[in-house]
């Protein structure tokens, strides 16, 4: 039980309302902890990749950058930022569910320890998703949903490599539409505050001609919105496990 008499139980079913209310509840109660945890990941990654690598710290703002330059930050967010923050948020949820504090220091350590197996599993998933998107859009979207829970499979189940993909496929078996719908709604919900945060800085970047303000908008947006999506994803994973009668049986 928390100091406010509110308790988080991981292993239970949740409808969309419960998934959102519990995710918002955890985020609201520990907002500054999540913001700090996000900053530890988001700031150095984007400063190194976009700020230094793409010269956005000192370069001029470009309203129509080359396609490769636009795709690099997206790929980094998909392969590095989101998986790492998912791992950290999973450990935070476990700590909170046990009645403790977010345990920020331990969550960071455990999150970074899990990053290597998560990265390689997500890289495998990304290759399959990209192939599906190149062939037809629908197969890419289908496998993206089936492999959505790779970080949870690695951290919670201890799966590795293709085993993590198999775990994710097993837990979503029969629940593809439910997973797709909830993930879509969660990302749309996160997009609203993300737009409110990034739009003023994007406008400042255009007016001043300095790319650094656009970079600041990207960093701030991901710091605030990514933890919410990660919390929803993890609670949804536990929900699907309960609906299927327990943890996946796939071999790690």
- What's the main sheet like? none
Q: pLDDT under 50 segments (min length 5)?
A: none
Helix content: over 70%
Distance between the termini: 34 Å
Spatial extent as radius of gyration: 18 Å
Q: What overall form do the CA principal axes indicate?
A: globular
Helix/strand order, N-terminal first:
HHHHHHHHH
Mean pLDDT: 89
The assigned structural class equals mainly alpha
SSE layout:
Layout: H1 16-29, H2 31-53, H3 67-97, H4 104-135, H5 137-146, H6 150-157, H7 162-172, H8 176-208, H9 211-243
Please tell me about this protein's structure.
With 252 residues, this protein is mostly helical. The protein has nine helices and no strands. Helix 1 (16-29) crosses helix 9 and helix 6 packs across helix 7 (162-172). The protein is globular, with a radius of gyration of 18 Å. It starts with 15 loop residues before the first helix and ends in a 9-residue tail after the last helix.
Brief overview, please?
With 252 residues, this protein is mostly helical. The chain is 77% helix and 0% strand.
Features:
mainly alpha, globular
């Amino acid at each position: 039980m928390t100091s406010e008499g509110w308790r988080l139980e991981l292993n239970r079913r949740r409808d969309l309302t419960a998934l959102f209310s519990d995710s918002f509840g955890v985020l609201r109660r520990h907002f500054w902890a999540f913001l700090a945890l996000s900053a530890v990941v988001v700031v150095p990654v984007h400063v190194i990749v976009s700020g230094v690598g793409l010269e956005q710290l000192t370069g001029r703002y470009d309203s129509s950058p080359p396609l490769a330059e636009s795709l690099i930050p997206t790929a980094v967010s998909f392969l590095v930022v989101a998986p790492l923050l998912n791992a950290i948020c999973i450990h935070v949820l476990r700590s909170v569910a046990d009645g403790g504090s977010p345990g920020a220091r331990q969550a960071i350590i455990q999150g970074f320890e899990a990053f290597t197996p998560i990265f390689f599993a997500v890289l495998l998933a990304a290759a399959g998703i990209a192939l599906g998107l190149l062939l037809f859009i629908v197969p890419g979207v289908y496998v993206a949903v089936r492999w959505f829970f790779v970080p949870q499979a690695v951290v919670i189940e201890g799966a590795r490599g293709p085993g993590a993909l198999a775990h994710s496929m097993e837990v979503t078996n029969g629940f593809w539409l439910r997973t797709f719908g909830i993930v879509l709604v969660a990302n749309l919900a996160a997009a609203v505050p993300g737009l409110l945060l990034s739009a003023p800085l994007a406008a400042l970047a255009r007016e001043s001609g300095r790319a650094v303000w656009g970079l600041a908008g990207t960093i701030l947006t991901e710091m605030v919105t990514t933890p919410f999506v990660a919390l929803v994803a993890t609670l949804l994973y536990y929900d699907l496990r309960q609906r299927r009668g327990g943890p996946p049986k796939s071999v790690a």
